[in-house]
Amino acid sequence: MSHECFDVTIDNGIAHLVLKRPEKRNSMIPSFWRELPDIVRDIDDNARARVIVISSTGPHFTAGLDIKAFQSIAAAPDEPMAERQAGLRFQNTVRAMQETFTCLERCRVPVLAAIQGGCIGGGVDLVTACDMRYATDDAFITIHEINIGMTADVGTFPRIFKLIPEGVARELAYTGRRMPAAEAQSVGLVNRVYPDQDTMLAEVMGIAREIAAKAPLAIHGTKRMANYARDHSVADTLDYVGVWNASMLQHAEIREAMQANAEKRPGEFADLPPVRPPLEGPE
After folding, report:
1. Helix or strand or coil: residue 76?
2. How far apart are alpha carbons 55 and 210 in whole angstroms?
3. With contact defined as beta carbons under 8 Å apart, do 183 and 124 qualify?
4. Which residues pair with 8 in a beta bridge?
5. Radius of gyration of the chain from its Cα atoms, rounded to whole angstroms
6. pTM of the model
7. Domain edge (last residue) among 163, 182, 212
């Protein structure tokens, strides 16, 4: 299936999603907001890959939201009661956009972002919803919304404040300044910085292959626990992981992992099962 905003390849358990509108700085047009969750859900629900990597093309990772396209969507229809409905229509639009990035957090497999050049506005919403972030020397992030008189509303605030010190996050949000890659690494926003995009992609794909070689059921549980621990107390998380392992721990997977390590060979692990609709039974 072809997409307007993404090229998608799946190989050896790794799904590679590439933003492909470099001439427009990979701005987020209306089709972007539909395509990304559709692609991710297809990969996750049908267990097509064990890891997702998101990268981009051209000088910038993404320029963020295409304001002109958004304004055309948000424009009130020419109806008598339309003005009264404007607030709720806007809220519905924002919720749909938020879900576009929440799907990255919710999907069962890890998502890695490889950032070159500018990661601007909505780009910060995107990468903070990923599990890990990697960058080139020339990369920068900016919570750009404040520079155009907006409050970021698609996912930056609930996530970035849990990734970096609060004072740093507030400074970025209040000033809209550019945070260069080296600083982003120093505060823990990106895992590693590479000299150029080719090197970054090669290294990130190596990390993705390492993750894909692990037991998918255990990786899923680990991501689930990491997200839960971020949002809950220590006591709640300890209780939840105990209940999770009581029902999900697979001793056959543990034995296979230990034997594969001892024999210095790849493990033969069960893939995640496809996600079935709630009322659908086995085939």
Report:
1. coil
2. 18
3. no
4. 17
5. 20
6. 0.93
7. 212
Q: Which domain holds residue 156?
A: 6-212
Q: Is 1 inside any structural domain?
A: no
Predicted pLDDT at 280:
62
- Residue 283: pLDDT above 60? no
**Residue 43 shares a structural domain with residue 110:** yes
- In this structure, is residue 108 part of a structural domain? yes
Q: Which residues of 94-133 are buried (b: 16+ CB within 10 A; e: fewer)?
A: eeebbebbbbbbbbbbbbbbbbbbbbbbbbbbbbbbbbbb
Residue 72 confidence (pLDDT): 58
Instruction: Report pLDDT digits (tens) over 189-221.
Output: 999 999 999 999 999 999 999 999 999 999 999
125 and 218, same structural domain? Answer: no
CATH number at residue 184: 3.90.226.10
Q: Classify residue 254: in a domain, yes or no.
A: yes
Q: Are 143 and 176 in contact (CB under 8 A)?
A: yes
Rounded-to-integer distance, Cα 19 and Cα 107, Å: 19
Q: How many domains does the chain have?
A: 2
Mean pLDDT score of the chain: 94
SS3 192: strand
Q: Which two tokens stand for residue 178?
A: 């550019």
Domain final residue pick, 212, 243, 273: 212
- ∠ CA 27-30-34, rounded to 5°: 110
Candidates 47, 176, 63, 169; CA nearest to 115 is 63
- Residue 130 pLDDT: 98
Q: What is the pLDDT of residue 67?
A: 79
State the pLDDT confidence band at 68, using cuts at 50, 70 and 90.
confident
| 42 in the same domain as 158 | yes
Structure confidence at residue 88 (pLDDT): 82
